[in-house]
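Input structure tokens:
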């Protein structure tokens, strides 16, 4: 039986449409990752500035200026600043008045006591495990610090002081302890910067005692060297905090002694 062929002019059979698929979210996720990464970098950058003494108590931070300096938008800078406010490293008097936190006398004494224990522990461990390369790095940091002091480069000397203290903690291979100290140094860095020049040789002389103890693998001597360094270098800080506390007490006493105005 003959089947008629399809007409050459008949319309083609339409193809079934492809099922619609949701647009990939890769780009959106990547953007979120970029933003999170930038926020973390900004936070880390400000943390380093605080720990290394590039900022001092009471210094004002302006979010727009920081964003321009760091080459990023305002949002990650604002988030990083707010995180540091939560850490207690910065204070926010208003949305436009953000400053490096000052440390009270009781806060300083507490931080000092914690440092004596933790940094002493780290120094003792470092003396036990330090290699010749580790000791050479410590020696180089002291030499660079001396050179900075001789050149009158106080900012570099302050930064090198911080690196020296963190280096023996890294040599000790105690990451939990180091993370605790990083939080403390968010407050100590600006305070040391404020007093470093007045501290004179007390800010560096104790480093030589630690270096000698590490060479001798004497853990107890290393612990004592660091604790003595913290106490000696911190004496000028302690005196400053005592004067500040006394001035605040006197101001409060004067204010309380003022007679109240009679109501009309």
């Amino acid at each position: 039986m003959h089947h008629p062929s399809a007409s050459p002019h008949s319309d083609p059979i339409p193809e079934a449409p492809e099922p619609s698929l949701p647009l990939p979210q890769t780009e959106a996720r990547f953007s979120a990752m970029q933003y999170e990464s930038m926020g973390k970098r900004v936070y880390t950058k400000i943390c380093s500035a605080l720990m290394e003494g590039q900022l001092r108590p009471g210094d004002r931070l302006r979010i727009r200026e920081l964003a321009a300096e760091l080459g990023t938008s305002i949002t990650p800078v604002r988030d990083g600043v707010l995180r540091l406010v939560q850490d207690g490293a910065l204070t926010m008097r208003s949305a436009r008045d953000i400053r490096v936190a000052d440390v009270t006398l009781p806060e300083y004494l507490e931080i000092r006591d914690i440092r004596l224990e933790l940094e002493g522990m780290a120094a003792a461990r470092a003396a036990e495990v330090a290699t010749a390369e580790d000791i050479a790095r410590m020696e180089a940091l002291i030499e660079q610090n001396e050179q900075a002091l001789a050149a009158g480069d106080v900012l570099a000397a302050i930064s090198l002081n911080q690196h020296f203290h963190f280096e023996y903690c890294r040599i000790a291979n105690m990451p939990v302890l180091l993370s605790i100290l990083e939080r403390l140094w968010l407050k100590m860095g600006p305070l040391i910067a404020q007093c470093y020049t007045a501290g004179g040789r007390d800010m560096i002389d104790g480093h030589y005692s630690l270096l000698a103890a590490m060479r001798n693998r004497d853990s107890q001597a290393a612990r004592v060297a660091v604790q003595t360094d913290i106490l000696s270098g911190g004496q000028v800080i302690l005196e400053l905090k005592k004067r500040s506390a006394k001035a605040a007490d006197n101001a409060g006493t004067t204010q309380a002694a003022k007679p109240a105005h009679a109501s009309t």
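The chain has ten helices and three strands. The longest helix spans residues 26-51.
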